[in-house]
Amino acid sequence: MTIQFNDETFRGDYSFRNSPWAIKRFPFPFHEDSYMYSVNMEQHRGGPAGSVFEKRFDVDEHYVSEMRDRALVLAEDPLRCQSLPHMTLAGWDLLELIMVSKSEDYPDLFELHRDGDRWRWVNKPLGIDDTFTFMDETTLPYGPLEYITRQTQGDFAVLDQRDDNLWMDAGMVTTQADWSLDFDIGMNFFEWHAPVPLAHEMGIFKRALKFLMNVQQGAPARRLNWTMTVNPLLDTSPENYHKWGIQKTELTAENIGAKQHLRVELQTFYRLPRSNALVFPIRCYLIAFQDIVTVPKWGRRLHRVIRDLPEELATYKGFIANRPLMIDYLSRYDDGLPTSPGVWADLETEPPLQK
Amino acid sequence: MSRIQFPKSIASRPVYGILAPRPGKAHLMIADAEGAEALLDLAAQDAGLMARAHILYIPRATGEAYTERLRALNPAQLYVGPSFDAALPRLRRVLSDAHMGLQVYLAGTEGLMGRAAAEVAAAGIPYGAVQTEHRGSLARRMQCVHCKGITEDVTTDPFVCSHCGLNLFVRDHYSRRLAAFQGVCIDAEDPGNIPEPVELYK
Q1: CA of B188: which chain A residue's CA is closest?
Q2: A228 has a pLDDT exceeding 60
Q3: Which value does ipTM take for this structure?
Q4: What's the CATH code, domain B27-134?
Q5: So where are chain B's domains?
């Protein structure tokens, strides 16, 4: 299908909207009526046609506007993209992975023509047609990591593997759930996850690290993570928290349906061939509460998950103060009927709201 | 008594030990203020260490209290300087000559140990060759996550960023690269509501 790209903003007037197509394919993260941490990894080998899992790097209607927002963030704060000196090779690996994947998965949008080291990259949605020499940084306007991730939705953490650990030694981070690349760069897997409550004690990170260190070339993995964001603000950075934090207090019973967004991260994990680094794309999808509840199963389930979530998690995810408002709103879309297992909307089989 | 047992914390927060003599041809010791006591204790365990030791010492508020006692240990080289920044060119020069097997001993405040450890790591010396022992002030070196400025010697929570003036709360999240803890705006969601500063670990 041809994607109609939205002209929209993720700041200021917040004109971001999801089309009915985007709502239907939204990666709803809860496979049952409750939530707790788990090592919820699975192979990233496509998914149902049209779903966000189908392609290696999903491109959707928000692509062009998200890339414009990224450019704004970088202009304001270049520290959002950094690469320690030994990570340049991994940047080339990532550039290759994305260019090959996108040109194969979306031939109508992206083209890659390779003649030895001489590469021509055509990105039609962004109007880019560049010819460069692979592995020669002087032939690109940015380093390879920055060049390709200015053209790819989602944040990117590039992890070096050594000493039986993963080290966050490079990244492009402008759509993050409140963590700082500039602060965390150079940390190992346990250090950058240090602020997460409960999961360390549950052994989550030890098992996740073991899994990730064994991800092989050509066998990527994925998982979903989620949090809450008031307004469709992509850049919920700690750097700018003193500016956006106040927005969390602007939620009311009247505006919550439009203002409160579920924020879902599709995290994928790819082994890179030359550097043996692991790249960890973190793709952010936003959806307004009023759009989630148009799917009866999701409305029922989200109410139960948010109502029953342990307090530590609601605090860590930053919505403990707004939880009562959320529960009030969502309870109107929960009639107590059972929900079908799994994350899919099941619009044809799940009954409409009975109240 | 200048030793403290830090409460259990998150995985990025450094933990410190007690310096112990290790075999090696060369020993680099970096300390500030009461950290000198840890070096004196170290020398007491193995007096032979000092003939192969290079000490960089920053007395800070302790003035002359320890310098003569350190000199009396007869280290191969002793440098007494006014600040870590002043000592930095010398430290980098020393590290540029370092060989495999160099043993590094850091003692004193968290800020001193953190900055020295970052320099030592940047020189390619493995973490395993570096020992640390906290002595003296509980002050922390804090980075403001908003303006990126570093405020040295923070002793209260919250505190005022010495660069941008925001009121920041003290996190235990720590960057070894920056040698700093993270400070985050405390009144972002309730502007002007700033709790009374409390002394750290009180």
Answers
A1: A242
A2: yes
A3: 0.92
A4: 3.40.50.80
A5: 27-134, 140-199
